Amino acid sequence: MFCTRYSRGRPRGLPKDKEVYVCDSRYNEEKHKMNKIKTWASCLPDEVRDKDYEMDLFDGPKRTKKVPTPLLHTLKEETKETDEVPKPRWGAENAPPIVGAVHKGPRDEN
Fold first, then answer.
1. Backbone angle region of 87, left / alpha / beta, with phi > 0 → left and psi within -120 to 50 → alpha
2. Closest Cα partner for 16 from 70, 63, 58?
3. CB 3.0 to 4.6 Å from 55: which of 7, 9, 19, 86, for a disulfide?
């Protein structure tokens, strides 16, 4: 679900007790940084890029609540911004790493 649609409603038929999560950034593997997604179509697989879904709209815009990454628990407390980026531990070919290169770096200026 695009962030812009998240604030206006939720997918039709989704139970009210189910949370909807959206991600507004993607990981740049070369720079080891998260970048805001500007062109959403480029992030979607071809199979779903042109598909749409019905939504149950809210009475007014819903404020987006930001939550910490679920990977935060893998960052050791003693990690410093000056530490080198660790190497990921890979499992199966063409699959995400078993343990990723979670690290702490300085924040970019907005």
1. beta
2. 58
3. 9
- Helix runs in the chain, H state only: 3-6, 46-49
What number of CA atoms fall less than 13 Å from residue 60's CA on the CB side? 1
- Residue 46 buriedness (CB in 10 A; 0-12 / 13-18 / 19+): exposed
Q: What is the pLDDT of residues 22-77, one digit of tens each?
A: 888 887 778 777 888 888 777 778 887 888 889 999 999 888 888 877 777 878 88
Residues 6+ apart with CB under 8 A from 27: 33, 34, 35
**Amino acid (1-letter code) at residue 32:** H
Q: What is the DSSP letter of 89?
A: B
Give the start-end residues of each E strand in the chain: 9-11, 25-28, 33-36, 55-57
